[in-house]
Design brief:
This protein is α/β, with parallel strands linked by helices. It contains 11 helices and 8 strands. The two termini are about 30 Å apart.
Length: about 300
């Protein structure tokens, strides 16, 4: 029997998802995820809300993922939407250096434009400077409204600030933006949604047309209507449509590992030589279980 393909979802907001999702993702072949810091729906009014959220991304959420055999990494940044609260944004920017060096932080992100306001532009540029100074990968959120203009502007600003395009992931692409992104040497990521924006049938067509170099598939599953299995489902559809397995592996695994693993924090050995699941472990006295018998892999039994 052929080995199950390993999958990386490099953009999924697991804070908003359940343990059932972690179980289903692991069963579908997801070995690692990257959770970008983002807008939680309810606008935050205190810097402490950001601090607790960032702490969760480097503490509780990696523990929760580990309980289901998935490696958890994250990106840290001030999202574009909340950059428009300038008084709060100033405090959040000062907070970021406390987190960007944490063990599972693989990039600055997701940052960029939402309504393309002057405030969004100001804090996008400040965080690009931070990424350049620290030699970190950048994960860019492109706006859902006026998509092409916002994507072109995002890349122009990155180049203006001297960032290497090969270290910048431009996310939420579609057929309208992909050629410009690839032609400029940036990494093009695609968010696969069940009903809107990019669907997996359209994603297959993109790979058929542009190939697999510098293209990444992600789910961006969050608190809205979305699918945490979007990447493995798209991988399966690509194989059914006759796309070479080598190209499927690149778009659903290897390209994400190459770019987000470039700072050495995200390594294939983390899941190729796993420590095993031990659900008897606690995080600050908390367990993910609710009365169930804990799963303890054989290599965890002492």
């Amino acid at each position: 029997m052929e080995d199950k393909m390993m999958i990386i979802d490099p953009h999924v907001h697991m804070t908003s998802r359940t343990t059932d999702d972690y179980e289903a993702m692991a069963a579908a072949g997801v070995v690692a995820i990257i959770e970008p810091s983002f807008w939680l729906g309810q606008p935050r009014t205190q810097v402490g809300s950001f601090q607790d959220y960032y702490s969760s991304l480097v503490g509780w959420e990696p523990f929760r993922a580990s309980q289901f055999g998935i490696q958890h990494y994250c990106t840290i940044g001030l999202n574009s939407k909340e950059a428009n609260n300038e008084a709060l944004a100033e405090q959040v920017i000062e907070l970021l250096p406390l987190y960007v060096h944490k063990q599972n932080v693989v990039a600055i992100g997701e940052i960029g434009y939402d309504d393309q306001t002057p405030a969004e532009d100001k804090y996008f540029r400040m965080q690009l400077e931070m990424a350049k100074e620290l030699d970190m990968v950048v994960q860019v959120h492109t706006p859902h409204r006026d998509k092409k203009a916002g994507t072109l502007k995002s890349m122009e600003v990155c180049l203006e600030h001297g960032l290497d395009p090969s270290k910048v992931v431009i996310d939420h692409n579609n057929e309208e933006t992909v050629k410009d992104v690839l032609d400029r040497g940036f990494i093009a990521a695609f968010t696969i949604y069940p009903k809107t924006k990019m669907g997996n049938e359209r994603m297959v067509a993109v790979v058929e047309k542009y190939g697999s170099n510098n293209i990444i598939v992600d789910s961006s599953a969050d608190w809205g209507v979305s699918d945490p299995l979007a990447v493995p489902k798209t991988a399966n559809l690509m194989l059914k449509r006759g796309i070479a397995k080598e190209d499927v592996v690149k778009t659903c695994y290897q390209n994400a590992l190459d770019i987000f693993g470039s700072n050495g924090k995200m390594k294939e050995e983390h899941w190729l030589k796993p420590k095993g699941v031990n659900q008897a472990q606690l995080f600050n006295d908390n367990s993910v279980l609710r009365g169930q018998e804990p799963r303890i892999d054989s290599d965890q039994i002492t």
